[in-house]
Structures are given as C-alpha cells and as structure tokens.
Amino acid sequence: MKASTTESLDIAAIRSDFPILQREVNETPLVYLDNAATSQTPEPVVETIADYYRHTNSNVERGIHQLSQEASIAYEEAHDRVAEFIGATGGREEVIFTKNTTESINIVAAAWGLEALGPGDEIVTTQMEHHSSLVTFQQLAERTGATIKFVEIDDEGYLDMDHARECITDDTKLVSVVHASNTLGTINPVAEISEIAHNHGALVLVDGAQSAPHQPIDVEAIDADFFAFSGHKMCGPTGIGVLYGKRELLESMQPYLYGGGMVRKVTYEETTFEELPWKFEAGTPVIAQGIALAKACDYLDAIGMDRIEAHGQELAAYAHDRLSSFDDIEIYGPPADDRAGLVSFNVDGVHAHDLSSIVNDHGVAIRAGDHCTQPLHDTLGIAASARASFYLYNTREEVDVLIEAIDDARQLFA
Ligand code: 7TS
Domain check: are 113 and 130 in the same one? Predict the structure, then answer.
C-alpha cells in the first residue's frame, strides 16, 4: 500500500468550497461518486466565471477597447497557466483550448492523421480506450486505408507490454494510449510506451482525461507528442478541453477549423494563418471557460496534485477492499493498491442500472453502463458495470454509505 496522506488533506475545508455537496438527494445527503464522468466545481472557479461575466466579458483578440484587452490578456495567460500545470515548458504555443478531450483527439485525427496516414500505415492503440479515441482512430483508419491494432490487456487489467512491443513496428505512425483507464482504473506506463513508439518513429497521443485531474502531469517527462484532457473532470467548467502538442508538430499541421481569429492576412485568393495556438482556435473561443480552467489549475495545485492522487488511490483501495469482502461482487482491473481513484464492479444477479438506481435512493451517485468502453466490456465478457469514482472531496464515510446501499440492493435481489 502506498503511504496514507489522507490526514494531510483538510477534507472539511475542501468540502466547504463545493456547495453542491451540501445537497440532499432523496432526502439523504448527496454522496457524489461519479467524478470520472464530471467533477464538481469549487467556489473559486464558479466565482471566476461569474466575475468574468460581471466585469470583463468581451470578445478576445479583436478589439482595442479596455474590456477586450483585459479579456485577451486573461485568456492568453490561461494558456500559460495550463501549460505550467502539465509541464509544457513551451508555454501557450503548445496548448490549444478545445471543447473537451474528444474534440482534442479529433483535431489530431483530422489535422494530423488525414494528412499523414495512408495504406500500409498502422495506428496502435489498446483494448481499454474510451470511445473518444477508439472510434476516432477507427474512422481515421477507415478513411486513410491505415490499419488499427489493439494492444491486449491481461487478466488483471494491465496492458500486455510484450504484446505492445510486438504491435509497435516501423509501420506504426501513431500510438494512442489512455493514461488512466476510466473503467479499469489501470494507470498505464505511458513513458515506456512513448519510448517504444519513438524508437520506431511513431508519434504518441496520450488520453489524459482521467489522469490530468488526479495526478501530477509532466508531458515532457512522458515525452507525449499530444496530450488531451477535459476541464470538467478537474474542477473546471464544461465546454473546455485541452490539446497539448509539441510545438514543431503543431506548426507543421494544417488548421482544423477555418474562420475568424485564426488568420493573419486574408485576400480573396489566399490566407495566411495566425501563430500557435490561435491557428487552432477559429471563431470566438472558449474565453470564460479557459480563464476558469486556469483557476481550477490554481485550486488543484494549491491543494497539491500529489496529495490529491494519494487521496483518490486510498479511497479506491478502501472501496476495493470493502467490495472484495462480498463473494458475489466482481471487481475489474488491477489490485487495490495499484489503481487510479475509481472502482468498476458488478453484483451477481443485479444489473448495473438497477444497482445505480437503488443506490440513488440512498443519495449515492455512481455511473452504470459501459462507460464509453464497449469493446473493453466485450473483452471482459460483460454488457455493463457499475463504477464509483472518487475525488479530493470524497471521504471513507461516503464509501461506507455506498457499501451499505449496495448491500441493500443485494438483499433486494437475493
Ligand atoms: N477519455 C477518457 C479516458 C475518458 O474517461 C473520457 C470521459 C473521455 C476521454 C472523453 O471526455 P469528454 O470530456 O470529451 O467527454 N469519460 C467519461 C466517463 O468515464 N463517464 O462519462 C464520461
């Protein structure tokens, strides 16, 4: 087991930043354990959004009036803050604000992949990818004539690294790998995968949707060529995602969307494009959301990503241990002491949707379904699973409420 640092997080103080956690659901206190889908938003981030609209709201990069200048500076600086959060020393040029992880991945497929790939080329990904990358690269392969290969998982939900070494060859042009699985809770050895890929001249995209909110990220240590994540899973608002890309790579790529904001000089005949990252941010961008995401980075860093990581892992390990005590519950993914802050499971004879509905009667929010990993569920031989996912404001007592609620469901269906 990793050392416990839960005591060092002041959970009561953290919870007071999230008024939604005071809500009741079905006349009982809300226990919010669906953080892998969307995390809650702390007051400083809500205030930042409100403040922006109260005092600064304006379009960016197109006005010389005071408000536009203030909004532009805040928006530009938000890119720098996010770059710092993920260890991108190239700063704002390497950070594109998008709508979400899904859009970030689609930009790579469209702006890089459609140009770079053709018949004979290979995309290597894994059996545990979220649909946002799996479907996107499946489509990219179909459109370009490239082949897609899936690195297999073993019985514990780890990637089979021998198989990864077999799959990645000189024909591989892109390796796309999820950093932390939203279903299994596996944390993948992305730096090692990146090294293998680079030895074969392939680029690496890391889907950081479930890692950026929960652990310190250093895109340069990982040596990711692209790194994608979403604001709404890391205390930020919806409507903002990030695509990090190595500068020279982004420079070599064509824009994804065309229009205002991304151009330098336009004539009836031709157009030159803005510098990075604006080249990839056509139209009025995600201004309030971007500024609020930077605030979310401040919020998380002030608490400490190391401590947030340890807290999530500890709660997941505790939930894993408690769920393991029931012999009619199957848990998916790695052992208790080696997983991200979530646990997916099934109770024998109870469909995950029924389970979710019964625990909702106890005020507990969990996710049920395929978690946008249908092929992985096929590999596991199941149609659906239930998932509890934790964040910095969750407590052991909340895990206990979940376990009691699950026990209630077991007895109802017994
Ligand atoms: N990649 C992973 C690993 C994810 O977990 C998700 C969202 C995405 C990509 C897509 O993020 P989006 O912001 O573009 O939607 N995962 C989940 C989930 O597990 N439950 O709801 C959304």
Answer: yes
State which residues form the domain around 18: 11-32+304-413
Residue 160 is predicted with a pLDDT of 98
The predicted-structure confidence for 161-199, as pLDDT tens digits, reads as follows: 999 999 999 999 999 999 999 999 999 999 999 999 999
pLDDT at 115 over 60: yes
**Is the same domain home to 269 and 330?**
no
Instruction: Please report the atom of ligand 1 found closest to the CA of residue 34.
Output: 20
Q: Which of these three, 302, 329, 362, is where a domain ends?
A: 302
Both 327 and 295 in a single domain?
A: no
Provide the pLDDT confidence category of residue 62 given band limits of 50, 70 and 90.
confident
Q: Indicate the average pLDDT of the chain.
A: 96
Phi-psi region of 62 (alpha: psi -120 to 50; beta: other; left: phi over 0): alpha
In which band, very low, low, confident or very high, does the pLDDT at 1 lie, cut at 50, 70 and 90?
very low
Q: What is the pLDDT of residue 6?
A: 46
With 0.90 as the threshold, say if the pTM is over it. yes
| Active-site residue, from 167, 235, 297, 372 | 372
Q: 333: which 2 tokens?
A: 């993914």
Q: Report the atom number in ligand 1 closest to the C-alpha of 181.
A: 3
142 and 209 inside one domain: yes
Within a domain: residue 196? yes
CATH number for the domain harbouring residue 316: 3.90.1150.10
367 lines ligand 1 (CB under 6 A): yes
Asked if residue 71 belongs to a domain, the reply is: yes
The answer to whether residue 5 is domain-embedded is no
Stretch 10-21: mean pLDDT = 98
101 Cβ closer than 6 Å to some ligand 1 atom: yes
Do 190 and 224 meet the contact criterion of CB atoms below 8 Å apart? yes
H-assigned helices in 200-304: 219-222, 247-252, 287-303
Q: In terms of domains, do 338 and 238 share one?
A: no
- pLDDT, one tens digit per residue, over 207-252 is 999 999 999 999 999 999 999 999 999 999 999 999 999 999 999 9
Q: Are strands 271-273 and 263-266 parallel, antiparallel or unpaired?
A: antiparallel
**Is 297 part of the annotated catalytic residue set?**
no
Q: Tell me, in angstroms, the distance from the centre of ligand 1 to residue 39's CA.
A: 11
Closest CA to 157 of 191, 176, 185: 185
Å from CA of 136 to ligand 1 middle: 13
Label residue 2 left, alpha or beta by phi (over 0 means left) and psi (-120 to 50 means alpha).
Answer: beta
* Residues 245 and 133 reside in one and the same domain: yes
- Ligand 1 atom, smallest distance to 104 CA: 14
Residues 198 and 213 in one domain: yes
For residue 66, the CA-to-ligand 1 centroid distance in Å is 38
